[in-house]
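Protein: DUF4384 domain-containing protein
Species: Deinococcus depolymerans
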Amino acid sequence: MKKAALLLAALATVTLGTPATAAPRLSAQSIIVNPVPTDLSVRVWVDRDPGGNGTPTYRVGEPIRIATTVNEDAYVYLFNVNPDGTTDQILPNHLSGTHYVRAGQTRTFPAPGDNFVFNVSGPRGLNKVLVIASRTELNLDQLSSYRAGDAFATVKPTTTPGFAQALSIVVNPVTQPVPQQNWTSDTVRYTVGR
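Structure follows.
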């Protein structure tokens, strides 16, 4: 897994092996780690670092694109973790269509032809993009909600630990019917600089 980082503003207005019953673990590197091995894999990167191994720098106001791919058909969820600890839900949203990605398909957000762009915004610092891929659709009610007329959901927790805790509830096999081998995550990071 890679470390993650990203800060966006939308114009048009985020695995280590242990027993199968283990709970998701919080990690400084990747926000949340599935402790159960799975054959499902997902990869996320930003347009200035297609390899996803660096930490590219963007200036405030510059456009940014995020891409992801999965090795099996899966539902994909993208979150941006800002330097101040707040989180933005990138996908799903009401502008990008489906968040279901086919095996081997690369999806870019925003996609060519979408009627919006993502522009980097402040504050400056290290940002993280977290992708969760799941074989089954996740219930994000504990994590985010849409306000009337909004294209993007608002993430309810306002701190990174709060977000990680809420996300761990979403993928917890005790509270949700999501077997741990059915989801995985990846992260990428970037810096907002001058």
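Remarks: The chain has one helix and 15 strands.
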